Amino acid sequence: SGMSWSWGWASAGSSILAEFGTLHLEFLHLSELSGNPVFAEKASNPQPGLRVLNRVEKPQGLYPNFLSPVTGSWVQHHVSIGGLGDSFYEYLIKSWLMSDKKDSEAKKMYDDALEAIEKHLVKKSAGGLTYIAEWRGGILDHKMGHLACFSGGMIALGAEHAQEERRQRHRELAAEITSTCHESYTRSGGCCSPCCCSIRARLIPGVTLHSSEREETWSWVWNAADGGGWAAPHLWGLLRALILPQALEKHCRVEAGFSGIRDVYTTTPTHDNMQQSFFLAETLKYLYLLFSEDDVLSLEDWVFNTEAHPLPINHTDFKA
Description:
Distance between the termini: 46 Å
Helix content: 40-55%
CATH architecture: Alpha/alpha barrel
Number of domains: 1
Radius of gyration: 19 Å
Shape: globular
Structural class: alpha+beta
Largest sheet: 3 strands, antiparallel
Number of helices: 12
Strand order of the largest sheet: 1-2-3
C-alpha cells in the first residue's frame, strides 16, 4: 500500500537500539565476499548507526532503547540489556574481534557501555542472585528479561580480552549472571525458563520456547573457562545433566516440531502452538557447539553472529 507502520511498542516511529548493531558484522563480511565496499560503508562510514551513537549524549553513559531516525535523539530513556538492546552490545565486542582487534572504537564503546551497566544496572537480590535491572528515566525496574541472559556469554567473551584489573571481575560477573539464569530453570521445576524474572517478587510466568541466548551464554562461559577454573561449579553439573535438552524433549516437543509453553510453572504445561524461527537459528546450533569438541570452530578464527552463524575473523587485508 505504500503506507509505513510500526509495532505498537516502537512508539513514534522510533528505531530500536538493537537494530543499529544487528547487521553490522554481516554487512562487513558481505563487502569482503562481494568486493563491493558499499555494504561496509553503510555499516561503518561516515555516520553509521552503530557509531553515530558513540557521539550522541547518553544518560549516565547508558544507551536507551529507542532513537528517532529523523532527529537522531533518544525518544525515551528506557534501557534494557535484553529485548530491544541485546545485539547492539553483543556486536560491539564482536566487531572488534572480527576486525582482528583493529576496530578500537568498537572496543572502547563496549568497554564504556559495560562500565555504565556495571555501575547503574548490575544489582544483587536479597537471596544473593546477581541480575541486570532495567532503567526507566533514572528509576530502576528490578526485573531481568529472559533475553538478557545472553549477557553472561558476552561478558565472558569480553573478559578474555579485558585489561588485567577488569578480567577477573568480569569473569565472576559472567558466572554470576549465568547462575541467575540457571535458577530461572530450576525454579520452574526443571521445565523451561520464563520470559521475564521479577527479582523482588517471584518469577513471572511467560510464554517461552527456550532460551536461545542461554545456550550462547553457556557456550561462551564453557569455552572461556576451558572446562574448569573460575566458572561456577554448578554449571558443569548442569551441563552433564543435560537439563535443557531434556526439558525441551519432555515439555516442548510435539509431533511437528517444538512448541512454546504458556506458563512454565504449571504441572502440565499448555503449548502455544508456535515454533519460533530463532529456535532453529540459535538454540540448536549453540547446543551442537556446546557438546562438540572445542576445536570444531576455533574462536581464534571465527566470530558467531547472534544467530550462531560463523563469520571469519579478518586476519589479513581481504583485498590483498
